[in-house]
Amino acid sequence: MVNKFLGAFISSLFANNCILCDRISARPIDLCQACQDDLPRLKAPLCQLCQLPLAATGSKLCARCLKTIPSFNNLVAGWRYEFPVDELISQFKYQRQLAHGKVLSLLLAKELRRQYHGQSLPDVLTPTPLHWRSLWRRGYNQSDLIAQNLSKTLKLPIQRNLHRRRHTPKQQGLSAKQRAVNLKDAFQTRNPQQIKAKVIALVDDVVTTGATAEAMSSCLLKAGAGAVHIWCLARTPLDD
Predict the structure, then answer these.
(1) Which residues does 174 contact at the CB level (< 8 Å), separation at least 6?
(2) Rounded to an integer, what distance in angstroms lies between the CA atom of residue 47 and that of residue 50?
(3) What is the pTM of this model?
């Protein structure tokens, strides 16, 4: 009887509603196990650098990375940018559904621990910066919130030494080449002495063509960073 009462009490402590099916998740996060299992995983084989799908199973790098090696050392994404992850991120980013971002961030932290098992984590986290106009209009930086969640879970410090120096048009609808031109000289570093020789994990919500990740990585490396890793909630599997 005591064990039954204790079990019911413990279950009540974790009576969180799932953000997808709205049923009680009975877990410390607001996502039930069944819905978590249905999230779209990245499907192997994947490029070891950018995590795009590989056309041939014998290759370790995709054609894009073989043609031009990216500035960043690796990329870790939690999921493919498909339903329902795309909807969760959109609601987190534009509709102030901050709980969605927290759930995905906690699960990403678990995936990062798995992928870095036996390896050193980066020294610091750096969120993708928003231009002040976008920050003022939205009220928060979704990448910064992801970084805060990862910082608490992985015990890594945050350095906001990357600054968006000019406002750029939205990347959606642009080709990879247009995105690169759009982001030319869009970022600059602050306090470069804090960056010297550090391994930095750049945090973002979604990586599509990788143009933003490349522009930020290049900026940090020019400022003296030792290496740059990209951490994001989702990866768009194919080029726009």
Answers:
(1) 182, 240
(2) 6
(3) 0.88
